[in-house]
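Dear colleague,

Thank you for sharing your sequence with our group. We've completed the structure prediction you requested, and as agreed, I am returning the results in plain text so they can be pasted directly into your records. Please verify that the sequence below matches your submission; if there's any discrepancy, let me know and we will rerun it promptly.
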Amino acid sequence: MHRDPELRITDGLGRERVLYTDGRKIEEERSAGTMKIRAKWKDGRVVVATTPEHGPKITETYAVTADGSSMTVTTTIEGRGRDLEFRRVYDAVK
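Please find the predicted structure tokens below.
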């Protein structure tokens, strides 16, 4: 659900993630420590940069097709001498 600047993403298990697309930094406490998260719109996509207290930076790009039939999430993990990138494609629930 999106009500600018708040964006709520719910996964298949019902877990909800709240992001703010105005570029503000938020912090989340997780078992591995504090995560600094910043989300913003870029070229019609939502880009979420997550910088953990320890470990590599993670960037997720959410792109919805023009007809709304699917969403692609591209995840890039930076660090440790090389970057790792993978994509997940989701079909819209009707």
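Summary note from our side: The chain has one domain: 2-91.

Kind regards,
the structure core
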